[in-house]
Amino acid sequence: MSKVHVTTTVNGDAVEFLADPRETLLDCLRDHVGLTGTKEGCGTGDCGACSVEMEGVLVCSCLVLGVEANGKRVDTIEGMSDGHDLHPLQRKFIEHAALQCGFCTPGFLVAAKALLARSPDPTEEEVRYWLAGNLCRCTGYDKIVRAVMDAAAEMRQEAA
Amino acid sequence: MRYHTPTTFAEAAGIAAAAQGVTRFLAGGTDVLVQMRAGMVLPDDLIDLKKIDGVDRIDPTPEGGWRIGVAVPGIALGAHEALRADWPGVVEGMELVGSTQIQGRATLVGNLCNGSPAADSVPGLVAAGAMAEITGPDGGRVVPVADIPAGPGRTTLQPGEVISALLLPPRGTAGGDAYLRFIPRTEMDIAVVGCAVNLRCDGDTVTEASVVLGAVAPTVVSVPAASAAIIGTALDDTALGTLAEAASAACRPIDDKRGTIAFRTEVAGVLAKRAARIAHARAKGENA
Amino acid sequence: MAKDGLTEFRLIGTRPDRPDGLDKVTGRARYGADFALPGMLFGAVVRSPHAHARIVRIDTSRALALEGVKAVVTRADLPDGLEGEDWDLQENTLAGDRALYDGHAVAAVAATSRLLAEEAARLIEVDYEVLPHVIDVDDAIRPDAPVIRQGAADASVPEGMPPNVVRYMEFGHGDIEAGFAEADIVRERSYRTEAAHQGYIEPHACVGQLGADGAGEMWVCTQGQWYIRRMCAAVLGLETAQLRVTPSEIGGGFGGKTTIFMEPLSLALSRKAGGRPVKIVMSRAEVLRATGPTASASMDVRIGMKKDGTITAARAEFRMQGGAFPGAPVDMALYCAFAPYKLPAVQHIGYDVLANRPKCAAYRAPGSPMGAFAVESLLDEMCRELGIDPVEMRLTNAVREGDRASYGPTFGSIGLVEVLEAAKGHPNMAAPLGPNQGRGIASGYWFNHSGETSVSMAISEDGTAQVSVGTPDIGGSRASIALMVAERLGIPYEDVRVNVVETGALGVNEPTHGSRATFASGKAAVVAAEQAIAEMCRRAAAEWGIDAEAVEWVDGAAQPAGPNAGRFPPMTIAEIAGKMGQTGGPISGHHEGLPEGVGASFGAHVVDVEVDPETGRVTILRYVVVQDAGRAIHPAYVEGQYQGGAVQGIGWALNEEYVYDDRGRLANPAFLDYRVPVASDLPMIDTVIVEVPNPGHPYGVRGVGETGITPPLPAIANAIEDAVGVRLTHLPMSPSKVLAALKGRG
């Protein structure tokens, strides 16, 4: 089981690690890169807690091998804010009480950010279907959907 | 586990043919990694196909059809307007596989080779008459997608063989296809029943049809009797009723955690009717 | 709506940002699996693939021979001689001579990496002799059922009961037969609910470290660090005070993280591995196979009603299995079943039955949803038969303050009538319904709980305050406790920091369960704040040279209580705190005890559904939760509890269930087929916070966490009948079941 040297860019930073080829990108981010904001809720792509963007595409990091990230750009929850400036989604999640336990929150934020990048003015239905792969057991989704819609509105206003 | 990144399909087939233990090909990985995680499959050799040139491309064929690379994820399929215009049923079948996140990785070929009778993209491919281009240790062959599934978790691919592309035929005129599935929730489930309908019209009248069911037998099943029920009709209620009966009659389902025999049999007919209506509308150029 | 609507608060009832929000939106918050220690090993658990089997032999030699494997633990490594609940916990931690359910832990291994530990676990060979098993509660209660454990019945079980009955109860009041005789109609039905899992998104995770000296530490995601400590100590035979347990942030619990599963294994492995810390993180499959789901239930209910809707008598017989150990919440189910109704005569009978399933754990209002499903369904059917409005029937029979509860005690201040009136007036009740659409209503109840509570509060040198609580924050309790303390101290919300502390820092606290954190830790924190206020008044009085009794605390400052007390400018908390080193030392408050005055919470839900008559799919169109909060300290998080509870109930009602194959193996141990609701399944969940303040709490708080899961089960069944005329009596009301009922196959 020889390990593979992986070179990647995580949140804009050059990162290198040695990965057992069986390890997922999620394992590598958490155990080798030290970024534990990305969570494992299922390990089977059913809960979305491990959502990250790879090359700008939203994926479950539990369904990507660490070795597949070689040469790729990966963006995680830890890269979402600009220093102390929170992303509007992060602010709106706090403001709308869109989190209770907070465990699913990083995955929701990363997924919602990907949605707003391609659809700045989503309908409620669009938000709900886009986020269907992110499970939240605490909130019943109501406040999450509101927070995403409100963040979208604010971002549209800023862009205008 | 050895991780391989061949740059040609011939090389990939060679690695697979030479491998002694458990071998898996990796395209999107959304099934293989789940199986690895559950300990169901512990590959000795994992062959990543994504470094092969062209696997991420969707190209028109000289005949007017489409050639789809093995690593094209659902999200790229869905974003390809021309392909969607030709084969909306094939595209929507793929788009129903998993979440947005899964769509970022999952592929048509992976969905096919996983061998699940409930694979959402396979009925649409079979109804469309799609072909699979196979590379093996001794060269290549092209077979209908319908011939690939062999039963739950099994395919007819031989050791060392790897699918190198999927081929969709030219759409032609006045054609339309559609895929519907039933799941208990609105998203994230495996199909309890799936049904694809591909048809061609002359005016309102159906002239050609193919009805294919998923999740009601060990493999996807084409239902000639269901196709016959609507050919020559304008999809009136009688024809739809006969279609539904034929679809239900073709079911050989099981009772399991996802649905009962009675439910699957009943709903297969319901979905056949609904999918036929959508395909019919699409064939006539109506917005559906 | 509040009874003392004149009271005005500066902070109570506002919606500030939660103090832990920033960490939780940036990925910085540390949950169970996020801890790592130097020299840490990784554990993996070997689990039984059989529902019931004798363990003939465990061979660990191949695993131990693997390079990097540092320890293996089997039951032989745990002490003998435990009894009662401690034995149950130990037996559930690691099987003894028999595996009692699919997923029952049999051995555990620690190695230098997670992959290596998993590989080693596969190398541990276990020979099983498969035994007959039983899964369903109605099968398990048969006299000839496979016996899960001889001698497990407690003293409540009369002679001659079937062997898997381990607890029996019978209670009630009034003349039940006279009551039924007085009724215009008497109806009886049977109902069944399937086991549901709490479904927290964070799998169980811990890092445990235990030395040869018997002193150890643990970092763990739990609702209750003292429970973890006591239970681990009991299972491993340790001295309790030698263990120090630190709770991580917790990724949901809903009752399921109030007990132990693999936590003692990390300590046992650590001890055998020379004291190196051992991390164990469960997979989702392990969570579903081996941690506590709720019980499944089979229930018979009989109710007598007059034509005007008055209930004359009621009887319930509930049978529940809670896995291979005693503890199905059949008692709670019975207590709650008829709680919203004033009954002249009622009889309850309950059976706790063993089956070859995982040991059930608490799940949000344990038992109450099952009982409500049965009772609220039958009442709705009777209203339909008699042509009575279901809300009016509920108002006619509603319990009020001073009424005797169906389960015995007398209700204090409660808000059921206010809840029903608010539901009646909600706009959703007047929304038009189309074809195949229907409306359902149901009530729900939870007692709420207080329990052992210990809280400390200290004033810092700059006049800010820190509060140490023992109840982990699952859904915003830091915010609500900070609001109450800041309100009382008269300082800004931001000046109070609430810390959830480890077992070494306070006396014993019960977990965050029973909807108690904001009530009990909140009440204790207010008492502690009042102690600090009294001390600060004394310090000011001493400086002013007046009696402490002549000083009052207003807006965050000490001031003379009146003109006679003397004329001094107010002395602020910052001024007093700034010189506390010279005026007598630290200023703090501390309260511990069993806070009295718990206030029960009633709720009523109104749901509109549409049923697809060709597929049986049920779509939730509109949903409103009405519930008595006593007083909403932070209304956003009260709404969150209502919405979250309702959606868990919706999941249980429609699609969630434990499915077993014919060999007794769990067929759906993944979120793929254990179908919790996803965002696209749902509409917005409207909420109405009714506030009938609880006189037993300084700010009127009742618990709000649990009641909300109860009404959805019957409300949806009632709505389905309203929509398409079929009555579902067996959860979940999945498309297969609804379609079968529509086709007359039900």
CATH fold label of the domain at 414-444 and 600-742 in chain C: Aldehyde Oxidoreductase, domain 4
Q: What order do the helices and strands of chain A follow?
A: EEHEEEHHHH
Radius of gyration of chain C: 27 Å
CATH top level assignment of the largest domain in chain A: Alpha Beta
Task: Round the Cα radius of gyration of chain A to an integer and report it.
Answer: 16 Å
* Unreliable stretches covering 5 or more consecutive residues of chain A: none
Q: Tell me the overall shape of chain A.
A: globular
**Overall strand count of chain C:** 26
- Major β-sheet annotation of chain A: 5 strands, mixed
Q: Count of helices of chain C? A: 20
CATH level 4 superfamily of the largest domain in chain A: Beta-grasp domain
Numbering strands along the chain, what is their spatial order in the largest sheet of chain C?
A: 3-5-1-12-9-10-11
Residue-averaged pLDDT of chain A: 97
Q: Unreliable runs of chain C, pLDDT <50, ≥5 residues?
A: none
Strand content of chain C is 15-25%
CATH architecture of the largest domain in chain A: Roll
CATH fold type of the largest domain in chain A = Ubiquitin-like (UB roll)
Give short descriptive properties of this protein:
heterotrimer; B: 288 residues; alpha+beta; Enolase-like, domain 1; five-stranded antiparallel β-sheet; four-stranded antiparallel β-sheet; 14 strands; globular; C: 746 residues; Aldehyde Oxidoreductase, domain 4; seven-stranded mixed β-sheet; five-stranded mixed β-sheet; 20 helices; 28% helix
Quick summary:
The complex is a heterotrimer of chains A (160), B (288) and C (746). With 288 residues, chain B is an alpha+beta fold. Chain B has a domain of 109 residues: 2-Layer Sandwich (Enolase-like, domain 1), CATH 3.30.390.50.
